[in-house]
Amino acid sequence: MAYKVLYRKYRPSRFADVVGQPQVTETLKSEIVANRVSHAYLFTGSRGTGKTTCAKILAKAVNCEHPVNGDPCGECETCKGLDNGSILDVVELDAASNNGVDDIRDIIEQVNFTPTNTKYRVYIIDEVHMLSGAAFNALLKTLEEPPSHVIFILATTEVHKLLPTILSRCQRFDFRRISPEDIAGRLEWVCEQEGATIDHEAALKIARIADGGMRDALSILDQCLGRSAHVDEAVVDATAGSADTGYLFDLAECVKNRDSSKALQIVADLHAESKDMSRLCTELTDHFRDLMLIKTVDNLKILRQMINKSDSEFKKLEDQAISHSMEMSIVLHSMDTLRNALDRMRFGNQRIEMEMAMVRLCSPQLDSSAEALIRRIEALESGKKGAGAVIPESIIERIEALERGMANAPRAEARPVSNTQRPAPAVTGEPVKPAEPPKSEEEIQREAVPFPQWPEVVERIRAVMPSAGSAFTGTKAYTSGAYILVEAKEIAFSLLRIPTNRDKIKTIIRDVTGRSYKLGPYRGEKITENKEPDAIELLAKRAEEASIEVNYTE
Question: What is the torsion angle, in degrees rounded to the nearest 10, for the CA atoms of residue 488, residue 492, residue 496 and residue 500?
Answer without folding.
Answer: -140
